[in-house]
Amino acid sequence: MDLFLQQTVNAFALGGTYALLALGLAVVFSIMGLINFAHGELMTIAGYTLMYCGLAGISFVFAVPLALLASMLAAVLMERIAFRPVRNSSGATMLVTSFAVAMILQVLFQNFISVRSQAVNIPDVISGSILIGGMVIGTNKLLAIVSTIVMLVLLDRFLSKQKYGIAMRAAAEDFAVARLMGIRANTVIAGAFAISGLLAGVAAILWVSQRASVDPLMGFTPVLKAFIAAILGGLGSLRGAVAGGFLLGFIEIYLAAFLPAELQEFRDPIGLGIVVLVLVMRPNGLLPAASLKAEKV
Amino acid sequence: MITAPMRHILFATGAIILLIAAIAAIALAGGSAIERTVIVFLVSLIAVAGMGVYSGNSGILSFGHVGFMGIGAYCAALLTLPVPLKTATLPNLPVWLASVQLDFVSATIVALILVGIVAAIVGLAIGRLEGSAATISTLGLLIIIHGVTIGWRDVTRGAQTFFGVPRETTLFAAVIACILALVVARIYRDSISGLRLRAGRDNAIAANAIGIDIQKERLISFVLSAMIMALAGSLLAHFLGAFSPKKFYFTDTFFLLSMLIVGGMSTVTGALTGAFVITFITEVLRRLEGGFSLFGLEIPTIFGTTQIGIGLIILFAMFKKADGLAGLKEWEERIFAREVKPPEAANQLPEKEAAPELVAQDLIMKFGGLVAVNNVSLEIKSGEIFGLIGPNGSGKTTVMNILSCVLTPTSGSVLLDGNDLVGRQSNEMADLGIARTFQNIRLFPELTVYQNVYVAALSTKGGRDAKTRTYNALERLGMLGRANEDSGTLSYGDQRRVEIARALACQPSLLFLDEPAAGMNREETDQLMETLRQLCADLGIGILLVDHDLKLINQLCDRVAVLNEGKKIAEGTPEEVRNNPAVIDAYLGRSA
User: Fold this and answer.
1) Over the Cα atoms of chain A, what is R_g?
2) A106 — contact with chain B (CB < 8 Å)?
3) Confidence at B349, pLDDT banded by 50, 70, 90
4) Within an 8 Å CB–CB cutoff, is residue A127 touching chain B?
5) What's the mean pLDDT when you consider all of chain B?
6) pLDDT band at B83; cut points 50, 70, 90
7) CB burial class (10 A; 0-12, 13-18, 19+) of residue A35?
8) CB contact under 8 A, B318 and A91
9) Does A114 reach chain B within 8 Å, measured CB to CB?
10) Which residue among B185, B220, B247 closes a domain?
11) Could you say which residues from 107 to 166 on chain B have a Cβ atom under 8 Å away from some Cβ of chain A?
């Protein structure tokens, strides 16, 4: 039972990170239909900012906002330089563009920073652990859960109460009409990218604080999982992305913990197999996006 | 069965054979280093063509196909590996597999069949996903295949190198396989299945309405493309002699995808162009990667020059030519137009079938709390033009969607000649004799006018006399002169006409027209009315017409029903309905 509870905490922590990433993907997808392959590189940029701050002797407390700022800025720049020219193209065109961006950024990291993984200084407070109700819980896990909740609440408030947030939801439902109502396309899209950069930055800090290192391909695996989480939840649906992220986190952690040893090697295929089964039953995901139903015949 | 003019296929095949033979000749003249590059190029080309068969025709980008290449490689290699080596390196292999040793060709054929079976199962599972969701699920497929390959140590040696595979892939073998794969890909594109799939890619709802089962066609192309990938995999395995699961993962996927995308994924011309451009640039950049001097300036070693190069080319291609360098048409399609000749039996109109009656009773359709259609009953007889009118939002289109099975009513029944239609798939309608057009035009914009109509004829009534039906439909609507134009480039009125021609090619007994005159001027509308009248008279087709244009309705319809707020408020001849106080009330409002 203890093991189960312990793993549940782990699942929430991992699922939360996936949820933040998937949410970042979904915010952009819902507005412009782009699946951003270069989302992982935003994570890597935040990770490297943490590393350089550590090298420059900047305290972690200041390094965190700097890292978030860096990934937000990178996301907005990415949109301005690479995605604006293909804004009205098909989904495949945009996806391929983002994949080229990811490839170029990875090579740049490898050349200008390092091919190898670099250590990042993480304060002892975060790498420590605390005792709650007989369970030893890593502070970083707790941090992950808390930050996920905070981010989700903040985003929800922003989208339901703030003017820009409401404009974004309108744009996600029907971009053409939203523009006709006087919502500026460039502002909304830049805002969506800034949010997705912020979410990637938070996810990166959580990711790095568990591993204490950064490498050029750091964002690749978690974002791959976030893609799958976003599909699982329902592509373009924000609530779906969160649900998919958590579900994927649970599937992974429980499989790692409870799958018999001889099957552990097949953990990823089995996990993805479960995802496929869910999708076969619900092809539009757990919580499908509203825009799917809107098509008129 | 090929839907393209024979000339296209012959020219394409000839060009493919000549080109590949020329490349082989260069390789033979160039020495062994060049020969190796050329073999790798040919294998990549097979793989790109294979990916194109699925992605190009269905419009769904796939990341998973390199996984099939991997399965093909491992399967064929396991079968050709000499038995003594097999027992030494893979001691835990099942006995039956450990004792088999086949020649290269049979092993490849077995691999193709196995991959075909795997792809059929996978295709059934992911066939229901659409667009980007389908793309990402193929990414999952790649990870699953990779994971299983690494985990299944007894058979694959896990992450370690699988070695000792006889090097049987000669230049000759690669050339033959490449020609074969390209020709198969080219023919599939213009096969009935390929044409249907491309129609579904352009507009899924319209494709359903003319009787296309998109998921079936997707599955066919998925299996075929996976088998072509297996061929590439087997060739690669027997070229390299040693490989590991890493060979069939993201690096190669991205490499092949970039060829597919840069060249243009919907044509074989594009696959060739993309493979050429990317291979050429990779070879050049690879030589520069180690550093070089330019005008006395020393350029240092830059790690990953090829990747940056490919990345920039993709960006350039996406910004400037999003459909790829070769665009959406094969070269031979650009050069030689299709000749539309009247078929020998052109003027023999198909016999009048005893047209059935459509009876809808007590239809109710609720969307959440909104009752869009409330207790509507209709009867449409053969040979009559039945008008359905009403103010905006009165439920006209919803009724039409229920009758054509796009929507399932909350309650009520629809009987066609005594058969219940409720709950059927919308792609069964065309064969039952109901064809329709749409309020927002739904053509297949990347297909020519001829193909738009022809694919409908091919997908209904078992495809009998498809050419004759296509010709007759085009002639009736006066679109023969534009048969070779892409339907997406036509004017609004012409697009409406093509849509009606397409519905007509299904040889329907009932034709549903949703605002056919929208966007037409008075002259065009009059022309259309004449055409519709003749349809009824000549073919005995019953027509259900939804429109706002009261002049059109009054002059054309035998009977009219009026809907208001989901309810039928009047029915009768146009004369009767015009004088009905309830109708005047709904349209003009009560005079104070």
Assistant:
1) 19
2) yes
3) low
4) no
5) 89
6) very high
7) buried
8) no
9) no
10) B247
11) 125-126, 128-133, 135-137, 139-140, 143-144, 147-148, 150-151, 153
